[in-house]
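As promised in the previous annual report, we have extended the structural survey to additional targets. Below is the entry for Acyl-CoA desaturase.
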Amino acid sequence: MPNQDGRLAFPPRTPFFIELQARVNAYFERNGLRKTGNRRLYLKAALAYLLFAGGYAGLVFYAESLLGAVLFALMLTQGMVLIAFNVMHDGAHGSFSRRPWLNRLAGASMDLLGSSQTLWQQKHNMLHHTYTNVAGKDDDLELGGLMRLSPRQAWRPWHRAQHLYAPLLYSLLTLFLAGFGDFHKLLTNRISDTALQKRAWWELPYFVMTKAAYFGYALVIPMLFHPAWQVLVCFVGIHLLLGFTLSLVFQLAHTVMEAEFPAGDENGRMPYDWAEHQLRTTANFAVGNRLVQFYTGGLNQQVEHHLFHKISHIHYPQLAAIVRRTCQEYGIPYHANRSLTSAIRSHFRFLREMGRAAA
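The corresponding structure token record, generated without further manual editing, is:
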């Protein structure tokens, strides 16, 4: 439970995290590496944008058959997924580049995809990364009662079937954010039970302009070349695939059988320090699978990401051994599912468990 002003407090840092930080810093110093992205990341970003631009141009200007439209739509969607996982995510965390303006530009990919970088940074960087799996604070758990994603949330009869209808809700993620969720946060000035930070003067007009630009290129321009109903069908189809992909990858890291859901005591004190909290609430999956690593932008290594979100995902494979060894030495859990398949099974087992009537 939070205290009267709604805040939660973590205990001071422990020797574990102090030692882990020292070992990670030593790794970068020893190898003469920057913690931000490198040429490999920039080439991946270029590929993502080429897929995006090629898919969009083909869909709007060249598609003349159903098959052509489907192929170009898939190309566009995969470009959007790669941008979200590999460019936007690192940029929003300030780890894409050592240049702040380039991080801001990379993070603005969120605006390009229809949502809001500013709101994402408060929802994801501040709340999710601080209060991971804490009901009422981590907005990723809050689906308006449609699903129960924490044992600390109220149970409802329809939750019995949530493992069946979850894929449909996941598919609606980006449509919801672009068309309603971002506007709702802005108008209510809240994310879950947390008030939005005070905005700079330019943020509201920037929000309006980027939303208008998004719907302009995603709907208005295509309607100049194709019937409106075809554009709408394609628009919704792309978002359903995009939303499902993004949702599933993020869910596999926190709403699985291995993860914990801590809460504060009556004074708002959390049971673990921040680093141990991240380790107990987060799980890796398919580590060592190069295709999964490439496609998800290192989000299959959420343990390393949550501990060192200012470090680019390019470095996570090398950091994993350091983190795992240090966890073993200090007796702190290090959760991981060996494959993508086992992580998906764990997630849907978790949904079934949460869907059972609470005792």
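The two ends are 20 Å apart (CA to CA). The beta strands are 190-191, 194-195, 283-285, 335-337. These points will be discussed at the next consortium meeting with the crystallography subgroup.
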